[in-house]
């Protein structure tokens, strides 16, 4: 069964939606982004979150100390790194760690082997950005990756294409943000439809 992560929560309404629809993970973005929130806002939202949903913090090139401080303050379950974090950096935490890789071609798969992390988030390569493009990549490039790795598939997923993505990549988790939004905010019906497509 593929799990679902809804990323980029920033409003009380978002928490109400996910508490009703029960994705497996939700993401709070601390990296520079239109969905960025601070630790105080995140903590307030997390206090209202269903305890069965795992909390992921999204970071990009933060100092180790800063990540640890936010993780403890917000009681995060998983740390997701989208920047230039090297293997030593990624192994500096006691939390579960997911490292994001931007897929341009098959060469990136060699890079994955350098890391000993709990999860590999595969996103779309776009020059000058660390993720959140809302565009998908050629999933066939990573069609075998989930055979020996915990794969989180991101990048341009919607309720229209997620079934195909799961069939090709067989990821353990699918990660969606803009694909369940209308005018930049999370939409209950879109989240509901996305989760239904994933869970059949």
UniProtKB/TrEMBL annotation:
Query: Under the GO molecular function aspect, what terms does this record hold?
Result: phosphoribosylanthranilate isomerase activity
Pathway noted in the entry:
Amino-acid biosynthesis; L-tryptophan biosynthesis; L-tryptophan from chorismate: step 3/5
Instruction: List the InterPro entries.
Output: Aldolase_TIM, PRAI_dom, RibuloseP-bd_barrel, TrpF_fam
Write down the superkingdom of origin: Bacteria
Q: Which organism is it from?
A: Crassaminicella thermophila
GO BP terms: L-tryptophan biosynthetic process
* Catalysis: reaction(s): N-(5-phospho-beta-D-ribosyl)anthranilate = 1-(2-carboxyphenylamino)-1-deoxy-D-ribulose 5-phosphate
Q: Which HAMAP family match?
A: PRAI
Question: Matching Gene3D superfamilies, A to Z?
Answer: Aldolase class I
Name of the protein in its database record: N-(5'-phosphoribosyl)anthranilate isomerase
The organism's taxonomy opens as:
Bacteria, Bacillati, Bacillota, Clostridia, Eubacteriales
Domain spans labelled N-(5'phosphoribosyl) anthranilate isomerase (PRAI):
4-196
Recite the UniProt keywords alphabetically: Amino-acid biosynthesis, Aromatic amino acid biosynthesis, Isomerase, Tryptophan biosynthesis
- Family of the protein in this entry: Belongs to the TrpF family.
Query: Pfam families from the entry?
Result: PRAI (PF00697)
Q: Per the UniProt record, which EC number(s) apply here?
A: 5.3.1.24
């Amino acid at each position: 069964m593929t799990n679902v992560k809804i990323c980029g929560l920033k409003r009380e309404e978002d928490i109400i939606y996910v508490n009703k629809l029960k994705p497996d993970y939700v993401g709070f973005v601390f990296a520079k982004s239109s969905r960025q929130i601070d630790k105080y806002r995140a903590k307030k939202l997390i206090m209202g979150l269903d305890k069965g949903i795992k909390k992921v913090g999204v970071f990009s090139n933060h100092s180790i100390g800063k990540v640890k401080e936010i993780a403890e303050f917000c009681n995060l379950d998983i740390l997701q790194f989208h920047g230039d974090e090297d293997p030593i950096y990624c192994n500096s935490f006691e939390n579960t760690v997911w490292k994001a890789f931007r897929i341009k071609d098959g060469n990136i798969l060699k890079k994955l082997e350098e890391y000993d992390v709990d999860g590999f988030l595969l996103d779309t390569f776009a020059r000058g950005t660390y993720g959140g493009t809302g565009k998908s990549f050629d999933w066939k490039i990573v069609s075998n990756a989930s055979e020996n790795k915990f794969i989180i598939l991101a990048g341009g997923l919607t309720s229209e294409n997620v079934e195909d993505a799961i069939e090709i990549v067989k990821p353990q988790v699918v990660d969606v943000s803009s694909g369940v939004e209308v005018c930049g905010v999370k939409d209950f019906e879109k989240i509901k439809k996305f989760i239904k497509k994933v869970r059949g």
